[in-house]
Structure formats: structure tokens, C-alpha cells
Write a structure and sequence with these properties.
Blueprint (H helix, E strand, L loop, with lengths): L2 H16 L3 E3 H8 L2 H10 L16 E3 H6 L6
Antiparallel strand pairs: 1-2
Helix pairs in contact: 2-3
């Protein structure tokens, strides 16, 4: 198998496994490059929020697979 095919298969496996996982707002913002970017992606529908409870201290839980698909480039 060539390297590109292996990388694509591994990326597909990672995204499939993480599709049922969620992470908090702070970590999601760090991965995508900031809170504004996260909010813009959420409003556009690119990243789903899995349950902000209508409470003062409600927790934002974002789909990990979708967050990883929009991660900022590593330095």
C-alpha cells in the first residue's frame, strides 16, 4: 500500500471512532483556533453542539470528529 492510502485509511478510522465522542467548549476552541472560530463553525452548521442545557451553568459538548476535521494547522 502506498503511504497516502495508509494515511487516508488511518484518518478515516480516527474520525469513525471519534464520531460518537464529545468534548467541552474550551478544548474544542483550542483545537479549531479560538472561540470565535468555534462559534462561527457552529453557527454555519459545520460542527454540531451535542447538548447545551437551558441552565445558567449548562455545558457545551461538541462532536469530536467534526472538531478534528476543522482543526488549525500544527506549527
Amino acid at each position: 500500500m502506498e503511504r497516502q492510502a495508509i494515511e487516508n485509511r488511518l484518518l478515516g478510522n480516527i474520525l469513525a471512532v471519534t464520531s460518537t465522542m464529545t468534548i467541552g467548549k474550551t478544548k474544542a476552541a483550542r483545537i479549531v483556533g479560538g472561540e470565535r472560530t468555534l462559534e462561527r463553525l457552529h453557527q454555519s452548521g459545520a460542527i454540531e453542539c451535542a447538548g447545551k442545557v437551558n441552565a445558567q451553568n449548562g455545558k457545551w459538548r461538541f462532536n469530536l470528529s467534526q472538531v478534528l476535521q476543522h482543526c488549525k494547522p500544527a506549527r
